[in-house]
Specification:
Keywords: Membrane, Transmembrane, Transmembrane helix. InterPro entries: Conjug_transposon_TraK (IPR022276). The chain crosses the membrane at residues 12-35. The strands form two sheets. Strands 3, 4, 5, 6 and 7 form a five-stranded antiparallel beta sheet that branches. The chain has five helices and seven strands; from the N terminus they run αββααααβββββ. It starts with a helix and ends with a strand. The protein has two domains: 2-47; 63-204, VirB8 protein (Nuclear Transport Factor 2, Chain: A, Roll). By secondary structure, the protein is an alpha+beta fold. It has helices spanning 2-44, 64-84, 90-101, 106-117, 120-126, and strands at 47-52, 55-60, 130-141, 147-158, 162-176, 187-196, 199-204. A hairpin with a 5-residue loop joins strand 3 and strand 4 (147-158).
Amino acid sequence: MFTKMKNIDTAFRYVRGFSFLVVSGCIIICSFIIFKSFQAVTLMQDKVYILANGKVLEAYASERKENIPVEAKDHVKNFHYYFFTLDPDDKVIKTNITKALYLADGGAKRIYDDLRENNFYAGIISGNISQTIEIDSIKIEIGQYPYQFKCYAKQNIIRTTSILRRSLLTEGTLRNVSRSDHNPHGFLIERFKTIENKDLSMENRK
């Protein structure tokens, strides 16, 4: 009887010890998995995957201040492209100007209104004139806020019989605003003005 009880007690201790080992092992494994999961999530937060032309590209997150020069230059470039790219089509002109005015304050809107009142855009349409812009360089001063910029570019004014090439120098400041679909870089151009816009050459079209 006592031998049987001793065997049961021994078996119980073995089962208890084995159960303790199993539970401890499960706790260790679960803790390791949770740790690795948090570690993986932390690493993934610094990565962004972009689908471009059917290919998945990996991008890395960074602080906004590190990207200010790049984003500011692209913002200024986009504004100039939409504001100065014109075709003899009222719908195209309105579409481009609308996109440009999302990137600038009321100063740019006043320039547009003045040009429209002076029949500049009507002349583009009636004369079948196209206007394109080539950005040479953009300089951003990020040492002080709001950021000052200067944009050096050339315009091509394409008429039926000729192509007029003009220099274009503009300046203004950039203020931080919220990002949106219409303003992905989160800047707003203020105090925009044209410093220089003079003829460089004229080429007759054949």
